[in-house]
Structure prediction request, 783 residues.
Amino acid sequence: MKHPAYHLRPNKAVDRIAMVEAIRRLERLVDLKDYTYYGLGGPYLEEYRLLYEYYPEMKYVSLEKDFETYKRQQFHKPCKILDLKNLDVGSFLTEWQPNDKSVIFWLDYPDLEYPNFAEFITLLGMIPEKSMVKITLRCEPTDYFNKADEFRNKFQSVMPEGSEDPPATISEFAYFLQRMLQISAEQALPASVTPCVFQPVASFYYADGVGIFTLTGLVWPRTELPNLKKIFKNWRLQNLDWSYPKKIDVPILSTKERLRLECRLPCKSKTPGKTLRIALGYLIDEDIASTESKLEQYAHYHRQFPYFMRAVP
Amino acid sequence: MNPISQIKYVPLEASPVKSFFVSMLTRDIRLEDAILDLLDNSVDGAIRNSNREIDKPYANKHAEIDFCGNSFTISDNCGGIPWSLHNYAFRLGKASDSPQDVPGTVGTYGIGMKRAMFKMGGHCLISTRSGSDEYSIEISPEWLANEKDWKLPVQPVKRSRDEDGTTIFVTDLYPGIAKRFDEDSKAFTSELIKLVSTHYAFIIDKGFEVSINGIHVKPRPTKLIFDTGTDIKNSVKPYIYKTKTSDGVEVFLAVGFTRPIPSQNEILNGQEANRYSSMDAGWTVLCNDRAVLYADRSELTGWGEANVPRYHTQFIAISGIVEFRSDDPSKLPTTTTKRGVDASSPLFLQVKNKMREGMRLFTDYTNKWKGREDESKEQILKGVPLSFAQVKIQSESIRMNPTLRTFTRGEQFVPNLPLPKILEPAKRRISFIRESKDISNLAEYFGNSDMEPYEVGGQCFDLLLKEARR
Prediction:
């Protein structure tokens, strides 16, 4: 099975670090040693490598439906405590018997299909309170150009109105997916039935070749929401009220360029893109506006932005 | 002394217990259906105040539904409740001496509005204007708690609204209801919009407007493929049946294709991944313009009965609509909630025979064209999708034949659907299953990763045949 170079996707790398930051905030309210992390790590198990560095006390489970990729994962296994399972999410949820220990679950789907939403709904209904769920979906409005009927047939039960056309721009499409997930979350955890709610903490959209939308949230007791919001409210990347997802579009910069810019960050200027463009002294994109936009992204995510460099194996 | 001799036999108290009455009334109805009951009242008002003979009889009539964690409101401009009807409109149930409503309404039991209000909250205010009559009625928590008092206070109101209409305002929402209107409002709004857009599609199509929390509801009517070309034979048209019963119920039925029949690949994908969250296939039953059943694919509408196969993804293209229309709503085959079909209704059971008869034509067609969906697609796409109203208009211009052995004599149109040509004996079908990743690899090898599996198989065959012939 062919895979993109997951480990070299800068925007996804920012998203991954943002998840670690969300977990660090969660850690202020819970004891993570009781948690198990479930994910769909792909052939390189990149997020497991990262999480294990920060949280060696957590337990780890990976789900992979493709047998060849599963074998490749065994080769890339970053730690002994990672339990690799050759299962798809649907089959796993069917046989899973969760106990009262909370989980962190990343439904990292490469596509956009209705079963993704159905599995999200099922998962929310199964997991104990104070669990974290992150869901990632393909976010390519061009997939549905002139195919609005197909979109409605697939997703009508979680669409806000059921009769609307899917939006044509990536930012609106991402927001639309987020509204669909909000409806799914309310269907999974109705206020009249369960004391818990799915509280979003962050959402992003980005494109490392293909458009991606991702939402992270916590299944939290409604009565304890103020405590949770207090912990996340000062996080620069938070989305606590289902507002528009944040865009991640970090520029490709050399190490030398980054070192030039880093001493100016964080930048208190209202126009950080302009400040950094002047510091560089040249354009890194087509024109001034797009250069400043990219550098503003860099200013925003520089702490989460990884270094990609050649290493001696 | 014998104590029994001291008992004094007095007349027994057998009046209804208000709190029991209220809680029992509301127990068996879903919140969504209770709200649709209120919308039904608005539509009935629009019918009373419209000319039903024109194309858009409900134009400029509208209802706005708004809710939040504290209150629920429905407001319309559909004529209001005349003071002369107050004894009937606000009583719990319809008395035998109630005046006959105007033709075409669906209110039968005189309970919908009260049941809906009691379902939601403990404090209700109804204000209405009908011509010079303008008044408001309050149902308070104290009134609901007082078992003796069955009189409702009425207040005259002056010029509170610009048009004739009614506003119902419910507060003191019960906790479960408030949560659905507040914390679950996104899911609830979405569900309600979809219900209105399907169940009131035919009314909205006729000009009625509904908004829910500020969102204008668009209708989602079922459209049937109708080939209006001159070739009467071999063209895809719906099966149509119409009749009028001796007690005045008009029945119009149409069943056909809404889209080309699905390819084998589409069927397999649909089954494997459960890719569709909802489907419009199946039967919709209308009673005086309201859909009381939508996209049903069960035995209730004839699937899996009397030579009609059970519903299966391969029949995703088949939809039918059957309309019952009567000036007397009690003659319609609907349940008390108006959100279901009375399956034991003799009228419905007889019409169901015709539903099955029509449906069988299209399930047979689907089976006959299995494996040759591409050829069938060409046939189906020659037609245009027509709404139910448009199918009714078209039925005027096609030759309907009298039905001979039906309970009530009617007319029907049986389409002459195209039959597949019998494969030439020199040709044979080849079908086989291979790993999907191998098929994708070959599709990429052939330079088009979007190729369908049968195309990949065909290319492989042609390539090797060329080699063999060298």
